[in-house]
Automatic annotation (TrEMBL):
Gene3D superfamilies: 3.10.20.30. This is Molybdopterin synthase sulfur carrier subunit. CDD domains: Ubl_MoaD_like. It comes from the Bacteria. It comes from Thermotalea metallivorans.
Length: 74
């Protein structure tokens, strides 16, 4: 199945803004972030098709996964 990954802020470095990847049926966002070599601790918000998602939620063909890192500053 094919999904789109949208990366934000620091997660874009060396990866780009948006990626299309192919995964096995029944794959999860955890599988996708593993392929992209993103550490779980570097994910603050995970959206699947614009709604809150979890790392273990099964994905479907055509899903859009948006990943945001923790925000710092002051």
């Amino acid at each position: 199945m094919d999904i789109r990954i949208k990366l934000f802020a620091t997660l874009r470095h060396g990866r780009g803004k948006e990626l299309s990847i192919s995964l096995e049926q029944g794959a999860t966002p955890k599988d996708a972030i593993g392929m992209l070599e993103i550490a779980e601790k570097d994910i603050a918000i995970l959206l699947i098709n614009g709604r809150d998602g979890t790392l273990d939620q099964p994905l479907a063909d055509g899903d859009i996964v948006a990943i945001f890192p923790p925000v710092g500053g002051g």
